[in-house]
């Protein structure tokens, strides 16, 4: 019994020890399970999962009438793995080392015709790129990039051919040969991606800009990138150690959400007309560049925004980078005489003058109170304010400006939106150049009254000109018409961005008076070469010497010819601005001759597109269309 | 009352019911043994005897092992369900489990005292030990099969099938049986150095040394349990202390002169130094724990078994359990082993003879230590060793022999219970007073207490 008692306490001791050890191990298990570092989890994730990204499609851009301007297409890029194909160490290729060269020959013979090469050329090319310059084995080499579906199909056909050959070889009891055919194309493959295409070519090139496969680089593509790209989805697979995907992990599937389609306010027809007309003017007058803007004055929609020289986003490298920007918003310039209606309108609004107020225009040469010499193109004596506009008299405008005084003049410039951002979301927009009020001098006052000393962009000019057409309101230019915020749910931009500010600048009465005065500009003044036979339009010319960059003074023979126009007269529907930069002075430089005629053409085409009833037509005018006939009949033509 | 030999299984219940043949009429008011209320609440409602608890635990562990081995083996992909089910049912694993259950049942019906034998030389225990020694030596020759770099298996080609057999598993139980039998046969000489201690050391050495060559873990396990059994059998403690320097030198040579063991030992604390070599197993095992987290990934959802975790159905099955079933799966397994250990200890405690005690202790200790070592290895608490989780890790030899050992444990319990029932509470040193009172209600609804006559008191 003594012995047995000894066994009892000893075994109890062992039991106690075992229980303690088991308990400690259980604690250890729990500790291991709950204390994983971030590093371990990352290691686990990378070891256990394959993540496949599902690419979201970059959304398309349309004009307001749903013509596709920018879209993405699926493209394939064809690559080779020279390291695998030649396999100098014999460790990569699935085939035994003595059969790998045969497979390589089969591959070259099958693939080379697709690349337009001979098999030996392809082999030589691959072998030349077998190593990187540092001696590392190259595992990736592009063979052909950005090919379309048809090329992909051809390579697929080659795959099928290899498969058939493999089956045939198996049937003829050549398992090794079958293996070679089966693995022949293992060293080449495709990567899928998208490419941005612009089916209309240079249509609104600077406005839309361009993008690479998924990132907007310039223009609206860049500005609206966050809307257009969407969000990539992903699939997370669990994988075995052999890299085989096992299953999709819990919460491992996130579908891609494609980008939001965007409809611009640009109208296909009007934009096309604007581009054609601007192109014609700029080419004829050998201009450096040019801009045309067509706006709806009531809601600020930009119906056309053309730039010269055009930019084809499909091949943007062909155009010099200085023409990539949208000059209608990025480049301010001195507007010259175009600026006069705003000053006159502001003075009328504040009862400083009436249109019949008479000023002495000193026959074209006059020194203002600071002693600065001001000249007109044509000398006139006493002119009413209306005639000051009609003949575009700088001296008359200086009188008007001096009558207003700096604060009021500045307030006018400010009220018409100059020196501020317009609120359009176009990228790279410049606020223009208007110096703050406390830095205005008498000289500035003189210059500003006839459109020098302030820098404005074409878009600002068009926007300010809308004021006369819509009864005195300053609209916010709009470029986006609608956005598809969710699949199938299209929201207009006003719904998304909220109501746009609309500032009252002039009274309706003043607008009506100003339209009448500017109609006279076209009837008998500087704009008489731009008169339309179809619609009664109103407008103002502007011819400004270009300032010398970086110093005082102006180029003597470099001009900016501008024409602002609205119409038809009783109830204006559209506003158009054409600005031609540096036309050849030998061919012409006045706004009324260089920019004006094409501006009218754009205007008439756009109004006709809008089915605005013409003011003059065969119905109203018995002499309509008869001139040519009469001229021919008169016998004076030869 | 007829004299009961201790080998005889007596249907006590009938004896007790028919007319009290022991000649004493029971008292009209029967006094129950004062058993603590919490013991009644805990055990009595289950109405399970100790051997029933044992078999339940063993079957649960086996079933769990069956499940997890199949989980480790599961395939992912387009599979035919009926084919897969057929594969599941008619697999070697199923046969192993059935064999294990059969062995457990058979040995639980055996009277363990038959293993003592008439003489030591012809005792079944001695024969078993000699056979396992021969097999161990045979494994080291070219008959042994090298699997995963270790030469531990005998492969017997049997027609189209190959039966592989791991002799070290047999040697464990042979060792335990031999020491127990030796202690019984040489009870009066066990305290002597030359006649009691040295033969045991030599026997242990003969078993451990061949194992030490290929399987350090098992050798250490057998050695430890053998030393404990020697102590229990009554060897002098300072004889045992003499062994320590020898064991230390042996361990030093075994570890330091085997490249992979040294590497494992050195890499143990910083497995990330060699993540693809010696550090691979510990890293992957730990990653399984992290991957499952506290709640586990769900049964069958483990990723680590897809080629990351080595030996996922054998040595590292515990990591798999941790990954798929989380903390509660691990807790279940460890609790079952704890339960098994407690039951084994109770059996040891209640056994009335030395052979039964040693046998029960040896079996319990081997299972418990092996489980502990495996869990410790898998949780990277000790350096990596190739040692299986008993009853759970796949392996026919292990399953069958461990189940057989549990069968022996049950046999010890049954025989001793029947003996105690034949003379209930006859002695003050009754196991009923010491251990938990685990008896089925069916067999003894209320244990009657009668005053022991002075004539019967020895």
Low-confidence stretches of chain A: none
- Counting DSSP H or I runs of 4 or more residues, the number of helices of chain A is 22
- Helix and strand pattern of chain B: HHHHHHEEEHHHHHHHHHH
Main β sheet profile of chain B: 3 strands, antiparallel
The two chains with the largest interface, and their residue counts, are: A-B, 37 and 47 residues
- The helix content of chain B, as a percent range, equals 55-70%
* Global morphology of chain A: elongated
Helix content of chain A: 25-40%
- Tell me the structural class of chain A: alpha+beta
Strands of the widest sheet of chain B, in order across it, are 1-2-3
**Amount of beta strand of chain B:** under 5%
* Structural class assignment of chain B: mainly alpha
Number of helices of chain B: 16
- Bin the strand percentage of chain A: 15-25%
Unreliable parts of chain B: 10-21, 425-447
Number of strands of chain B: 3
Mean pLDDT of chain A, as a whole number?
91
Oligomer: heterodimer
What does this protein look like?
Chain A is an alpha+beta fold and 638 residues long. Chain A is built from 22 helices and 21 strands. In chain A, strands 2, 3, 4, 5, 8, 16 and 17 form a 7-stranded mixed beta sheet that branches. A 5-stranded antiparallel beta sheet of chain A has the order 10-9-21-20-19, with helices on both faces. Chain A is elongated. Chain B is built from 16 helices and 3 strands. In chain B, helix 6 (124-140) runs parallel beside helix 8 (193-214) and helix 9 packs antiparallel against helix 10. Chain B is globular, with a radius of gyration of 24 Å. Residues 10-21 and 425-447 of chain B have low confidence and may be disordered.
Keywords, separated by commas or semicolons:
heterodimer; A: 638 residues; alpha+beta; seven-stranded mixed beta sheet; five-stranded antiparallel beta sheet; B: 458 residues; mainly alpha; three-stranded antiparallel beta sheet; 16 helices; 4% strand; globular
């Amino acid at each position: 019994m003594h012995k047995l008692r000894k066994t009892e306490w000893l075994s109890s001791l062992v039991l106690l020890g075992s229980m303690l050890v088991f308990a400690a191990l259980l604690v250890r298990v729990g500790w291991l399970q709950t204390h994983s570092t971030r590093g371990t989890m990352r290691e686990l994730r990378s070891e256990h999962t394959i993540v496949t990204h599902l690419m979201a499609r970059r959304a398309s851009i349309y004009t307001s009438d749903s013509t596709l301007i920018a879209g993405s297409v699926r493209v394939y890029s064809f690559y080779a793995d020279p390291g695998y194909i030649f396999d100098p160490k014999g460790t990569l290729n699935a085939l035994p080392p003595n059969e790998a060269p045969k497979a390589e020959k089969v591959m070259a013979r099958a693939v080379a015709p697709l690349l337009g090469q001979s098999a030996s050329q392809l082999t030589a090319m691959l072998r030349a790129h077998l190593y990187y310059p540092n001696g590392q084995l190259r595992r990736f080499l592009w063979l052909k990039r950005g090919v379309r579906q048809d090329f992909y199909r051809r390579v697929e056909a080659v795959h099928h051919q290899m498969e058939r050959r493999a089956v045939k070889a198996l049937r003829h009891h050549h398992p090794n040969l079958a293996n070679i055919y089966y693995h022949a194309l293992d060293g080449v493959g495709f990567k899928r991606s998208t490419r941005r295409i612009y089916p209309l070519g240079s249509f609104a090139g600077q406005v839309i800009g361009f993008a690479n496969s998924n990132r907007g680089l310039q223009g609206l593509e860049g500005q609206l990138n966050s809307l257009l790209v969407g969000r990539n989805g992903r699939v997370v697979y669990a994988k075995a150690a052999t890299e085989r995907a096992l299953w999709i992990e819990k919460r491992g599937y996130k579908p891609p959400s494609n980008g939001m389609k965007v409809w611009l306010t640009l109208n296909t027809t009007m934009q096309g007309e604007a581009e054609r007309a601007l192109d014609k003017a700029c080419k004829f007058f050998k201009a450096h560049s040019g801009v045309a803007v067509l706006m709806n004055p009531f809601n600020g929609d930009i119906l056309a925004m053309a730039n010269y020289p055009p930019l084809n986003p499909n091949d943007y490298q062909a155009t010099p980078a200085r023409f990539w920007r949208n000059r209608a918003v990025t480049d301010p310039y001195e507007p010259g005489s175009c600026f006069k209606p705003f000053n006159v309108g502001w003075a009328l609004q504040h009862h400083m003058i009436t249109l019949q107020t008479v000023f002495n225009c000193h026959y074209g040469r006059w020194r203002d109170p600071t002693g600065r010499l001001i000249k007109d193109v044509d000398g006139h004596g006493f002119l009413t304010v209306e005639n000051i506009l009609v003949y575009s008299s700088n001296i008359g405008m200086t009188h008007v400006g001096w009558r207003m005084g700096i604060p009021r003049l500045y307030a006018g410039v400010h009220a018409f939106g100059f020196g501020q951002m317009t609120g359009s979301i176009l990228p790279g927009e410049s606020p223009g150049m208007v110096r703050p009020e406390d830095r205005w001098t008498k000289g500035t006052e003189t210059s500003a009254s006839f459109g020098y000393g302030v820098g404005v962009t074409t878009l600002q000019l068009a926007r300010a000109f809308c004021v006369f057409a819509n009864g005195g309101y300053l609209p916010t230019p709009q470029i986006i018409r609608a956005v598809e915020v969710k699949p199938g749910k299209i929201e207009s931009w006003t719904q998304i961005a909220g109501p746009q500010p609309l500032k009252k600048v002039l009274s309706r009465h003043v607008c009506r008076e100003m339209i009448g005065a500017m109609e006279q500009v076209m009837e008998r003044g500087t704009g008489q070469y731009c008169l339309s036979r179809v619609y009664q339009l109103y407008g103002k010319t502007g011819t400004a010497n270009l300032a010398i960059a970086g110093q005082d003074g102006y180029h003597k023979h470099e001009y900016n010819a501008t024409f602002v126009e609205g119409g038809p007269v009783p109830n204006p529907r559209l506003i158009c601005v054409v600005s031609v930069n540096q036309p050849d002075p030998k061919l012409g430089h006045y706004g009324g001759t260089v920019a004006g005629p094409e501006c009218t053409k754009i205007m008439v085409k756009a109004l006709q597109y809008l089915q605005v009833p013409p003011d003059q037509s065969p119905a109203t005018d018995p002499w309509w269309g008869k001139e040519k006939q009469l001229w021919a009949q008169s016998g004076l033509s030869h | 009352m007829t004299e009961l030999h201790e080998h005889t299984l007596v249907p006590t219940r009938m004896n007790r019911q028919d007319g009290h043949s022991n000649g004493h009429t029971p008292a009209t008011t029967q006094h129950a043994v004062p058993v603590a209320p919490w013991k009644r609440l805990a055990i009595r409602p289950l109405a399970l005897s100790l051997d029933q608890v044992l078999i339940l635990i063993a079957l649960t562990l086996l079933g769990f092992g069956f499940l997890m081995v199949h989980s480790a083996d599961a395939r992912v992909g387009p599979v035919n369900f009926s084919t897969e089910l057929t594969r599941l049912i008619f697999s070697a694993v199923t046969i192993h489990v059935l064999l294990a259950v059969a062995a457990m049942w058979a040995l639980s019906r055996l009277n363990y005292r038959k293993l003592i034998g008439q003489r030591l030389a012809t005792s079944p225990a001695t024969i078993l030990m000699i056979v396992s020694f021969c097999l161990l030596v045979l494994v080291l020759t070219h008959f042994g099969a090298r699997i995963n770099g270790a030469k531990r298996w005998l492969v017997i080609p049997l027609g189209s099938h190959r039966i592989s057999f791991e002799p070290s598993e047999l040697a464990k139980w042979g060792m335990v049986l031999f020491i127990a039998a030796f202690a019984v046969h040489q009870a009066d000489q066990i305290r002597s150095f030359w006649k009691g201690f040295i033969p045991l050391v030599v026997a242990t050495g003969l078993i451990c040394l061949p194992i030490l060559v290929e399987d350090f873990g098992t050798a250490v396990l057998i050695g430890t349990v053998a030393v404990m059994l020697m102590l229990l059998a009554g060897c002098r403690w300072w004889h045992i202390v003499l062994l320590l320097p020898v064991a230390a030198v042996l361990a030093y040579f075994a570890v330091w002169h085997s490249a992979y063991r040294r590497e494992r030992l050195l890499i143990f604390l910083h497995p990330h130094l060699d993540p693809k070599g010696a550090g691979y197993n510990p890293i992957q095992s730990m990653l399984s724990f992290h991957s499952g987290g506290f709640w586990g990934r769900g049964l069958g959802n483990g990723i680590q078994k897809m080629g990351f975790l080595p030996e996922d159905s054998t040595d590292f099955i515990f990591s798999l359990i941790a990954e798929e079933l989380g903390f509660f799966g691990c807790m279940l397994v460890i609790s079952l082993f704890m339960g098994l250990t407690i039951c084994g200890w109770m059996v040891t405690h209640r056994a009335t003879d030395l052979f039964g005690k040693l046998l029960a202790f040896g079996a319990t200790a081997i299972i418990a230590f092996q489980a502990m070592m495996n869990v410790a290895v898998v949780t990277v608490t000790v350096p990596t060793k190739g040692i299986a989780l008993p009853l759970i890790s796949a392996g026919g030899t292990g399953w069958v022999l461990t189940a057989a050992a549990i069968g022996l444990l049950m046999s010890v319990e049954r025989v001793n219970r029947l003996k105690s029932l034949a003379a209930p509470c006859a002695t003050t040193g009754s196991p009923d007073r010491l251990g938990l009172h685990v008896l089925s209600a069916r067999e003894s609804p209320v244990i009657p207490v009668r005053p022991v006559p002075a004539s019967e008191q020895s």
